[in-house]
Amino acid sequence: MNWLTHIEWNNPWFLLLLIGIPLLIWNFRNSSHKHNSYLIYPDLKNIKTQSTWKLKLLNWLPYFFYIALIFLIVAMARPQYILREEKIEAEGIDIFLVLDLSSSMLSKDFEPNRLEVSKKLAIEFLDKRYYDRIGIVGFAGEGFTQCPLTVDHTILNNLVQDLECGYLEDGTAIGLGLATAINRLKEDSLTQSKVIILLTDGVNNAGDVSPSLAAELAQTYKIKIYSIGVGSNGEAYSPIGRNQNGEYVFGMVPVNIDESLLNLISTSTGGKYYRATNKEQLKEIYQEIDRLEKNKINVKVFKRNSEEYRIFLWIGLLFFAAYFLLRIILQPLII
User: Fold this and answer.
1) pTM
2) Confidence (pLDDT) at 204
3) Which of 26, 155, 239, 331 could form a disulfide with 248 if both were Cys (CB 3.0 to 4.6 A apart)?
4) Domain extent listing, the chain
């Protein structure tokens, strides 16, 4: 089936001739029945049915002709195996998604929680950025690269789904998360447009890199930061500790997001700060970032044609040759 997805037809209209093949077969079968001659015997019990290989082959002889026609029609349609190589203008930039994995992201003011909604909407956003190279950084009290820059959206989606709270030291190291993404973009990015989307629900309280220093680094390397503060207003049902089994214990706690810091980080790098108090707002924010960040680039798509009609032509000619040769051999049986 994969082979068929790479096949194109140079003369596809010839394939319409295949519609006539069933009609020819139907006409042949009807006409052969009409012209059959019958002898009526008083009793058929003593007459032995004679069937030789020649008689059997004679019955199949017309089908050699039809099979030959099918293959020759396909050959005339010129099937070609395609590998693309062409330059097209597309929209693409290098993006790092920096996602907060602190325990507060399990707060249930989003259904089922902030983290699951953030991951789902992030995947929807990434799926629209077909030509972008995208990477993922996760952070809590420390930061790590979940995925370097890649255009493989299947891998990206799987790795975003794998992000969970509780595997890192708890805390909110915003500066360290940004610095991890900046370092990756500095070394790996090949485009002029570089963007970080920071998604967090708290206040910087951990890490060796301050958010202001991370913002300065982003300015140096011309990296734009879009910050998203996630969390409802007032209080939210959030983790307040863990029991002996390691399970989170929940309680009502105030929602505290350092919006002034996030706004400063974003505006100083040419980006923008957003606040999402529910799923719908977060979705709209991703849509706005998608509209804002467009950049024309040249993308190479490989294209090479391989003519595949010859195999169909040879098979068709072989069936035609077999048909005419067998007609000569079976001529005495043809009435």
Assistant:
1) 0.65
2) 95
3) 239
4) 1-23+53-86+298-335, 93-294
